[in-house]
Amino acid sequence: MSDSFDLVVIGGGPAGLAAAVQACEFGLSVALVDEQPEPGGQIYRVVERAEAEGRARGLGDDYRRGLDLVNAFRACGATHFASHQVWQVESDGRVFTSDGTTSRQIDGKRVLVAVGAMERPVPVRGWTLPGVMTVGAAQILHKSIDLLPEPEVWIAGSGPLLLHFAAEVVEAGARIAGILDTTRSSISRAFMAHGTGALRGWRYLAKGLGYLRKIRMANIRRVTGVEAVEAKGDSQIDRVRWRVGSHWEEAPAKGLLLHEGIIPNTHMTMSLGCAHVWDAHQQCFRPLTDAYGATDVGMIAVAGDCGGIGGARVAECRGRLAALGIAAALGCITDEERDHRSEPVRREFDTHDAIRNFLDALYAPAPELLAPPDDVVVCRCEGVTAGRIREAVALGCRGPNQVKSFTRCGMGPCQGRMCGPAVTGTIAAALDTLPGTVGSFRVRPPLKPLRLGELAALGDGESAE
Amino acid sequence: MDVIVIGGGLHGCSAALQLALRGQRVTVLERSHVGRHASGINAGGVRSLGRDLSEVPLSVLGMEYWQRIREIVGDDCGFTACGHVKVAESADELVQLETRAQTLRCLGYRHEEVVGIDELRRLVPSIAYHCVGAMVVRNDGAADPFRTTLAFAARARLAGAVIEEGEAVVSIEREGGAWFVVGQRERYRAPIVVNAAGAWGARLAALIGDTIPLRTRASMMIVTERMPPFVSPVVGGVRRQLSFKQTSSGTVLIGGGQQGRVDLDRELGWVDVTNLAKSAAAAAALFPRMRAVRIVRSWCGIEAETPDRIPLIDFSAAAPGFINVFGFSGHGFQLGPVCGVAVADLVTRGATDLPIGPFTARRFSTAVAA
Amino acid sequence: MPFIQDGSMFQKPPERSDAILVEVEGRSVLVPRGASAAAAALIAGLPSTRTSPATGEARAPYCMMGVCFECLLIIDDESSQQGCMITVRPGMRIRRQEGAREL
Questions:
Q1: With contact defined as beta carbons under 8 Å apart, do A158 and C87 qualify?
Q2: Does any domain span residue C8?
Q3: pTM of the model
């Protein structure tokens, strides 16, 4: 027993929401499946509730854009499957989801994967200690329930989100102990390479400079040129250590928030067997798509950050383009109409994408970040260190899947999401080759751990043979 | 070079080891890496229980190799003699088991033992209440398939065998009493070729004009999250397709032969959710408390079966000096160590005393000798 | 050894009238409506939410968005639940998961 739609959108962020709205405008029947209880994805998390609670304004103007998008989605007529985790997508358009108790099958003539991004998992010494989280995690807690870090919490890493969150904390009247900035490049160097784009995206630049100013004015210590960060403690973090050049420093810490940029969440597209390419600018794998987000796998299209990092406004544009492509593929509009309607979307896309190369260059992660020292745990689930991975390479392993068979790395509940980038990076460094050549883990269903009984019930609930 | 072995799975590496130990100069050509397919990702069942009668003698002899596995390869391969239990869920099924046990006894084999409810509950405390008895082989067990295959490869190398990974076979020609095998990188020449290419065995045999009926199988496996130890033997059902085994890391492996889809050219398997649900249902039926346990991953292994579901271990009828050893039809793992000896016998003496009589080429071959 | 300690890395959230009462390790805790079970554990000041079945180490939530699986908790007697993906309900019982889940 399954539900059927013209289009099944997976993911409730700006790309998915915009695609659903656009597709409904063409009269397509649309389902949007979202693992979150409320639409908005990560960037516009709980935007409706924040508005209702009067907190939205404090979270910035961009956040309000999210509210408009969510309101449009609520009105568009799409069927909303909230709090549904997708655990399998078949290339013929069958989507299997779980609401935590029961699994169901949702069929689409087309499926749009809009599952967004995740923080680049960068293993550092002590990162598995309680009290070490991502900046994104802290931002989620702030957006969703107004939690703020204690003053003895440090932030470490590089990227726009780092400064954005620190400024957010200051704006909310709280503080943090300091920022350990691992950014290697400089604004001037990135500007020299991508100045035009940076100027076109001057609003984003201005925002970033605004964050820096706020942080400076709050007298929050910012250490630049940090080359290594460590969390120290017994069963939870109590100190943070860092190195600038050859000089180590240490400070007490109640928490450490890490961030080294975001990368596409490719778990689902990889499970579908979509072709992926190693993007050297963004230092991540991303699915190969055409101008409308279609992949090389039949019914599957991609939109938003899971197809390559672009930010919320770019994600919206990609969502609309994907819907246009799908509407044309399903015969609702002609190809000419699709191309015509896509022109203003592409212009908007270009405006918001202009800053991207500059940001990628400025915040490019150092290659060593994904090839950590031997004693650092790479696979959190199974406790496999970088050294163990290098041992496996020395024994002849040439790729992540072979390393997995040797070491159990990637066999835990997260199925390689957290260790994938560093496994690829460590192998690539050991073999002196490119990450794209090394490849990534094979992904198999279920995409999220699924109760045995729930899978069993899917087969018509036969209890006896 | 004396022998070229094609296929770096357990059977290829086992043959290479035994050949090298006899002073033969062996090269193994493996298209991907050792243990990439069925050998590395099967359920790890070291089973003599429930075999086709034609396999019983070889399998029972083969068990002795597992008992000495550390001697043979220098690694215990994770082997434990935890026993195999085949559960009867009804009186009818129990009668079936008793008939089978009787048949085996008439043939002189006593390893398969029928037990009642009390002994079943003692062996498998968490088994579902409706189960009435079981067939038990106490000395059967389980091992780590990837580790086992690697151990055979390592020991073979130590004995002098060469294993070339990433070396797919492009063509095979016979000329002047020798085989010329062209790989992706190099060319190889030897008087004897051993075809241990598993699911690709028939394709390889076809290169020399040997037509072997082989159907690709895509058997699926499920692995769960880790759990504290709660079940020791490997458990299966009579009519119910199930293989249920808790590993040393606490995860539970659920197999049994439900089929996914396979692309032989791309060496890829695809899970079929509908059939996977049947595997899950089978496990939940025999172990009801498993319903709340989480599946972490499933996969689809590439195997192949012959029409009569017993292997081919014999010289090719199509050409001299070519030995086929594949078609284990989903139950080749336990036979790996002993088959290596059989193949080494065939290579060095032209015959073997091991009971491989039923696994002839004659029963299939329609090819004409070159 | 008490599991609830001060020393949470987050400040106590602002008091709200629609806060929800849950149980964390047997102790009643008021958490904001819309909080996840993992967030509730953090607010309650649990030094860790589980011990790893593979290594025995103490672990706590890392990503809060369903990717890291460190927030596996026993919620209302159901094991291995991703705490960050479950919104609190009144009376929800949240407990740490020590090592491998039980059958």
A1: no
A2: no
A3: 0.94
